[in-house]
Design brief:
Strand order of the largest sheet: 5-4-6-7
Oligomer: single chain
Length: 249
């Protein structure tokens, strides 16, 4: 297969399926051959990311990701996409394994925030406890000279319920709870824009988009970027040149 990219997924499976569905539905097609070429690695056995980030005695998820990246490198993809925000804890280590471009979903999303909302000095952040604990998104937001608002102590339990109890355990999205979280971040904490720092939250946005709040959805953004790059490369552009505009440092 020529001109394909590799999706390092399975964290979790339903969220990764959402990313694949987005790229399949958004690419403009007139025939089967217009779809994108990709290899979808759904490694559902990767240990829990938040568990390890908060407690290093738990299984380390780096080694599974390393094996997936190196295995795909042998096939020669044009670029990598990893539709899991929390897994970017090991982004630098994974990207160093190969010279193939590896997109940084979190960084791309934060840069789109400042491009789309240049006057906003802060952004609301809802994410996994792992991402919050290790400042994964907060550091990226501070790097572009913006403030991250995490909300009060009532927010994280609501987010945890939506991510783990509802989506990961039951495979369902509680749209009412999702909208309640967005409303509290907007009304109680003054967030005009809210960043969805977990792909399960992106799934919630896909399933329950009918609300008045401005969100930055990294999974939706990386889906559009994946399509853009895949089509440029298919049309003859060098993969590294195509990806260069999104390889933020």
């Amino acid at each position: 297969m020529k001109h394909f990219f590799s999706i390092i997924g399975g964290m979790g499976t339903i969220a990764t399926e959402s990313y694949v569905r987005l790229i399949n539905h958004r690419v403009k097609i007139a025939k089967d051959q217009d779809y994108l070429n990709y290899i979808f690695v759904n490694d559902a056995q990767i240990p829990d990311r938040t568990a390890y980030i908060k407690d290093h005695t738990k299984p380390n998820f780096f080694y599974d990701l390393r094996d997936d990246v190196l295995g795909q490198a042998k096939l020669g993809p044009d670029f990598y996409v990893m539709p899991c925000n929390t897994a970017h804890y090991f982004y630098d280590d994974l990207a160093a394994l190969t010279d193939i471009p590896f997109l940084h979903m979190m960084r791309i999303a934060v840069h789109q925030f400042i491009e789309k909302y240049p006057q906003e000095k802060k952004i609301g952040l809802i994410a996994t406890e792992g991402s919050i604990y290790d400042h994964l998104y907060v550091d990226e937001i501070h790097a572009v000279h913006r403030e991250a608002e995490l909300g009060g102590p009532e927010i994280q339990p609501m987010v945890n319920k939506l991510i783990y109890s509802d989506i990961k355990e039951k495979g369902m999205v509680d749209g009412k709870l999702y909208h309640q979280i967005l409303q509290k971040m907007h009304d109680d904490y003054g967030c005009n824009v809210i960043l969805l720092g977990c792909t399960e939250l992106s799934l919630a946005q896909e399933k329950a988009p009918d609300h008045p709040y401005n969100v930055i959805d990294p999974q939706s953004i990386i889906a559009d970027v994946s399509i853009e790059l895949a089509l440029k490369i298919r049309n003859g552009m060098d993969s590294k040149k195509a990806c260069a505009k999104y390889m933020y440092k």
